[in-house]
Design brief:
This protein is 37% helix and 25% strand. It has a 6-stranded antiparallel beta sheet, covered by helices on one side. It is an alpha+beta fold and 161 residues long.
């Protein structure tokens, strides 16, 4: 009887507490994009790059009409860029290089600036928020992230012609 009471109490206690699953669901990890970079300048329009994992290889570039850190607003433009296998391989190589050098102990913060969100399941599921990676980029260890963004931006520019 004592064991049954303990089990019932544990179940009821578990139901009454907020679970981490409410914030980080398994479906979020399964159905998340292969690679997503969101860039939200404080007073400018946010943008995002989304890279698919499988054929057809596609890069989606989206722009929003809001003001970055305060209100993203609505998605006003999405451009689809079809990638060759070589372009996709290079983007994935840059992503993986970026992930292997991503700092785990960057404590940089500021009142304004650009906030980046990197979400990927290239190795394991990862979602991280980075304040102003273009500030002291090399010293803070974000050169790989900037190189990845520059390459994705180059693909958008070339694909929009």
């Amino acid at each position: 009887m004592k064991i049954v009471s303990i089990i019932i109490f544990a179940l009821l206690s578990g139901c009454a507490t907020k679970s981490i699953e409410l914030d980080y669901t398994l479906s979020e990890q399964i159905f998340s994009p292969f690679a997503l970079i969101q860039i939200a300048p404080t007073f400018e329009k946010p943008i995002e790059y989304e890279l698919t994992q499988h054929e057809p290889y596609v890069l989606f570039y989206s722009e929003y009409d809001g003001k970055g850190g305060y209100n993203w607003g609505k998605k006003v433009k999405t451009t689809r860029i079809d990638l060759s296998e070589e372009q996709h391989i290079k983007a994935v190589e840059l992503l993986k290089a970026c992930l292997t050098t991503l700092p785990q102990n960057d404590h940089s913060l500021g009142p304004d600036g650009t906030t980046w969100v990197l979400e990927t399941r290239a190795f394991q599921y990862l979602k991280t928020i980075i304040w102003e990676p273009e500030h002291e980029t090399t010293e803070r260890g974000y050169s790989g992230l900037i190189e990845l963004r520059n390459y994705l931006n180059q693909l958008v520019t070339e694909g929009s012609k």
